[in-house]
Write a structure and sequence with these properties.
Layout lengths: L3 H55 L4 H8 L10 H11 L3 H8 L3 H9 L6 H12 L2 H9 L1
């Protein structure tokens, strides 16, 4: 017949293992959940960093479609920095003169032509009207 002390030790060890198993399952579930959250946060961080790189590289191109979705009432107006510079040269005007016709500052025209910024919808409409203008009409607008 086994000693009562050894039986008691074995029973205590068995119950302790049973308790540990339950707590260990909880910890494993928590660890799995935390790993999933960490992976999700890493993916989100990577997507945000990618978006920042795109905006820094593209000069805010991703903001333009958001504006276009909001301003669906008018026709879609195109804009290119080279096109504005070519239009200005075709009319034989300085950047300050074009700025006066469009109702903006000369610095705005310079930044649009260099591609650093993009004009807002209101200015895009004025630039569209400038495209349809001839030299005489542009000079008349400047004189007025």
């Amino acid at each position: 017949m086994p000693n009562i002390g050894t039986v008691l030790k074995q029973e205590i060890a068995r119950i302790a293992r049973k308790e540990q198993r339950g707590e260990l399952q909880q910890l494993k579930k928590s660890v799995a959940q935390y790993r999933g959250q960490i992976a999700q946060l890493k993916r989100r961080l990577q997507a945000l960093e990618q978006q920042v790189r795109r905006q820094a590289r593209g000069g805010g191109r991703s903001a333009a479609p958001a504006q276009a979705r909001e301003d669906d009432e008018g026709p879609q107006l195109r804009f290119s920095a080279k096109g504005l510079a070519a239009q200005r040269k075709r009319l034989g005007l300085s950047a300050a003169s074009v700025a006066k016709i469009l109702g903006v500052s000369a610095l705005s025209v310079y930044k649009w032509e260099s591609g650093k910024t993009r004009p807002r919808a209101r200015q895009l409409e004025a630039i569209s009207a400038l495209r349809k203008m001839g030299k005489r009409e542009a000079m008349a607008r400047l004189a007025a």
